[in-house]
Design a protein that fits this description.
Elements lengths: L12 H8 L6 H14 L4 E7 L6 E6 L6 H7 L19 H7 L4 E7 L8 E6 H7 L11 H9 L5 E7 L12 H22 L1 H5 L8 E4 L2 E2 L14 E2 L3 E7 L2 E11 L9 H8 L3 H5 L1 E6 L2 E5 L15 E7 L4 H4 L12 H30 L10 H23 L3 H14 L1 H6 L6
Parallel strand pairs: 1-6, 11-13
Antiparallel strand pairs: 1-2, 2-5, 3-4, 3-5, 6-7, 8-10, 9-10, 10-13, 11-12
Helix pairs in contact: 1-5, 2-4, 2-7, 12-13, 13-14
Bound molecules: adenosine-5'-triphosphate and magnesium ion.
């Protein structure tokens, strides 16, 4: 810089904190980003409390993780926390605690204890009104009160952290934070939060090797994991696992693919379980790739541009797993809810995804055939004839897979269409079914 003039253009705290509120979180993803921090801090228990009390309504997220010293607590409240990360750590930007919280509330207080032996707690507050008034990046001691006392009491047992959101201006209307509407809104958010956490942290809730099982509660109710692949269902089929090496500017990293065809309704252990596995988006939109970053689910639904969603392939779901060394390649966003498939990976995924979809399509058609119209052979048909029919259906499936693997799927679809028009008996025998 020697000899050159320079000018200070440090950001306006008032403007920037305001803009950062709109970085793309909604309530459930904001809570999940706070829980990320708890997971990174080694917590085994996270309690989310969403409490209605008119304009004093609040959210508390308490964990029994390693906690923070006075110094690290202050650093934690800096936009762009100064620190480094090890591979597999969920944090990346040094922003989540602040941006997720302030996307929902105006006053964020963090209370923490890091000493195992001494009951020493620290509490600090980030108050949006104060930052706007002073136009300074400041943190204060919290206002004394019952909530901070309660947090301190929670920490009497051991280490941990409590994140407290107050003045929920983005959750409840500022004009009418009281009354039935506000109460119902918080109740419905609590329900949706539990559903969201059940999905994104399902692997931690089920238990991972080398990590103690995580327990999450929302308003006192234990969150049960939601495994998108129904691996407990006996009729779920898993195809061969695959791994891909992805080149990055700094080296390379591995991506793992696990593919599942879930059972059709009549092969599920119970109709209730089939409904449960339908998921928040329902079967059709819940098909597709489930992208995991360091075991935490970040994105799901749809095939990432590889193919469109289709009623016939709604039983197909696949886990795509990467570690934090591939963050840049996947362009993980700050809210940890969106990734972009690296172009080289998208190409590599085409064949295995199409193979999965063909099998899922087959499972779906078999069911719709058995429920909508009789099979060409009924139970009175001699066994050898039934075996022959099955062999023909298998031949049809093998032909479709060969066409797909050879990279001629579009041509094959044209052939199928012609067969259905010109030789419907053959198409039916091969299990191609009506389109
Ligand atoms: N519950 C917690 N227990 C212990 N330390 C925490 C907790 N929450 C936050 N921290 C500390 O505060 C830091 C800042 O958190 P913040 O969520 O803002 O950023 P990050 O997790 O580092 O990155 P990202 O923006 O990707 O979430 C963390 O890196 C961690 O050191
Ligand atoms: Mg974080």
């Amino acid at each position: 810089m020697a000899g050159r003039a320079w000018y200070d253009v440090s950001p306006s705290a008032a403007r920037l904190t305001g803009s950062l509120r709109d970085i793309g979180y909604d309530f459930t993803t904001a809570v999940a980003d706070i829980v990320d921090n708890s997971v990174a801090a080694g917590a085994t228990r996270v309690e989310v409390m969403i409490e209605y009390d008119g304009s004093n309504s609040r959210v508390l997220i308490a964990d029994d993780g390693c906690g923070m010293s006075a110094r690290s607590l202050l650093e934690a409240l800096r936009f762009g926390t100064r620190r480094s990360y090890t591979q597999g750590e969920l944090g990346r930007y040094g922003l989540g605690l602040k941006t997720a919280s302030l996307s929902q509330c105006r006053v964020l207080t963090v209370v923490s204890r890091s000493s195992k032996s001494a009951v020493r707690t620290y509490a600090r507050t980030l108050d949006l009104d104060l930052i706007e008034e002073w136009d300074q990046w400041v943190v204060t001691d919290p206002q004394p009160g019952e909530l901070v006392d309660r947090a301190r009491r929670w920490l009497a047992e051991g280490t941990g952290t409590i994140v407290l959101w107050q003045v929920l201006d983005r959750v409840l209307s500022e004009k009418r934070p009281e009354g039935g509407w506000a109460r119902r809104r918080l109740e419905s958010l609590a329900k949706r939060t539990a559903e969201h956490l059940a999905i994104v942290f399902h692997r931690f809730l089920e238990g991972l090797p080398e990590r103690q099982q995580l327990i999450i509660t929302v308003n006192g109710h234990k969150v049960e994991p939601w495994d998108p692949f129904a691996t407990d269902e006996p009729a779920t089929v898993e195809l061969a696992r695959q791994a891909f090496e992805i080149e990055t500017t700094t080296g390379s990293g591995r991506v793992h693919l696990r593919r599942f065809v879930l059972p059709a309704r009549d092969r599920f252990s119970s109709p209730a379980e089939f409904e449960r596995l339908s998921g928040p988006l329902n079967w059709n939109r819940q098909q597709g790739l489930y992208v995991y970053r360091a075991d935490r689910l970040v994105q799901w639904g749809g095939w990432g541009g590889i193919r469109g969603i289709d009623e016939h392939t709604k039983l197909a779901r696949a886990a795509l797993e990467f570690d934090t060394d591939l963050d840049a390649a996947f362009q993980i966003n700050v809210a940890k809810m969106r990734v972009a498939l690296p172009p080289q990976l998208r190409q590599l995924l085409e064949a295995p995804v199409n193979e999965l979809c063909i099998l899922a399509d087959d499972t779906y058609r078999k069911t719709s055939r058995s429920t909508n119209r009789p099979l060409p052979v009924d139970v009175n048909t001699p066994p050898e004839e039934r075996a022959a029919t099955q062999a023909a259906v298998n031949a049809g499936l093998a032909l479709r897979m060969a066409a797909m693997q050879a990279g001629h799927w579009t041509e094959w679809e044209a052939i199928e269409k012609l067969l259905r028009e010109q030789a419907p008996d053959v198409a039916e025998l091969l299990g191609l079914g009506p389109q």
